[in-house]
Amino acid sequence: MSKNLKIRLLVVVSVIAACLYFALPLDKKVNLGLDLQGGMHLVMKVDTEKLDEEAKKDAVPRAIEILRNRIDQLGVAEPVIQRQGENQIIVQLPGVTDRDKAKELIGTVAQLDFSMVNEDPNLLNEALSTETNPPGYLLKQIKGKPDFILVAEKPALTGDTIANAMVDFNSAAFGEPQISFTLNGEGAKTFARLTRAHVNDRLAILLDGEVLSAPNISEPILSGRGVITGQFTVEEASLLALALRSGSLPAPMHVEEERTIGPLLGQDSIRAGVTASVFGGIAVLIFMLIYYLKAGIISDIVLLCNLVIIVGVMGALNFLLPGSKVTLTLPGIAGIILTMGMAVDANILINERIREELANGRPMHAAISSG
I need a labelling partner for 254 at 20 to 30 A (CA). Which of 87, 152, 273, 338 fits? Predict the structure, then answer.
């Protein structure tokens, strides 16, 4: 055996071994799509009726970008987020089984506002008795408490200035979850001016129009950092922090269509796809073996190597690029079968050319080279 042939064989064996390592076990190394592993399919409608004409044009693209940021932080592999029609968005989440958590995250507008509280007791009592909002103020109830307050209709600061938000725990309240936030440069300056001018006044923190808390400003806050409390569970605080980090939606959204694809349906699809692939592959291998004999054996080995390399490369890409995983779907399985068919076609062309050359009296080495 020549040195050149030994090197080629070593390269082939190394590539096949590496591909087998990255391909097996298949269910752990290759990411499966919505049609194979189950998940959620949602059609969301962006409510743009209250927006002006300029904001309407930008509402859906902004909503898509914000949804993508939120879902990426959830760790959902290969989600589908695309526009449908004028104001609808299709969202597909492979592998997501907690529908309530997903719908809450996607549908939360996450519009955070900071508004000053009017502590005039006479004005508050009048608003409570007449159940009307005084000019420039809104009557609100604090979340989880019986207390009502009057908050300024125009917010003093909005959540657009939030640079980061994360879950923290309040040691003074028996480890109750809270959200620590950091404002950007402009937001920190505005917040410093606001708290400096309103020491000993109350500042309400509102999320989507609901008052989470209304703490007293005991001293100016110059660091651009603060906390949001509101009797959250850890899961609620995590979802809210994620929504605040990714930004608020430009308009409310509601679910128009929802389909949950169970894993059993995915298993049936996998079984049908694998069965079709196996029977089709066996038929091709038998045909090549009978029709081309020794050359057919070589072709069969090459076809199997081709399949191993395809799946191995998918597993390798998922290992090297965990943030951009390759997903195997039913159309993907069909594509692999089609690739095998094209590979067979190439083998037939090569083998037929070799037969022609041999029939013309060419030596085996020259016939193979021409083929």
Answer: 152
* pTM value > 0.70: no
Peptide bond before 25: cis, by omega within 30 degrees of 0? yes
DSSP annotation of 153 reads S
What's 212-273 look like in SS3?
EECCECCCCCCCCEEEECCCCCHHHHHHHHHHHHHCCCCCCEEEEEEEEECHHHHHHHHHHH
The C-alpha atoms of residue 128 and residue 352 are separated, in whole angstroms, by: 92
Alpha helix locations (H) across the chain? 3-23, 26-29, 34-37, 53-74, 99-107, 121-130, 185-197, 234-246, 263-292, 294-320, 330-359, 364-370
Q: Is the dihedral of CA 180, 185, 188, 194 positive or negative?
A: negative
Question: What residues contact 146, with CB distance under 8 A and at least 6 apart?
Answer: none
The secondary structure of 160-192, three-state, reads HHEEEEEEEEEHHHCCEEEEEEEECHHHHHHHH
Q: Biggest alpha carbon distance in the chain?
A: 111
> What is the tens place of the pLDDT at every residue in 265-306?
556 766 776 787 778 778 888 888 888 888 888 888 888 888
The residue count for the chain: 371
First to last CA, the chain: 22
Q: What angle do CA 70, 76, 78 make, to 5 degrees?
A: 110
Burial class of residue 178 in the structure, from the number of CB atoms within 10 Å of its CB (0-12 exposed, 13-18 middle, 19+ buried): buried
The single-letter DSSP state of residue 134 is: P
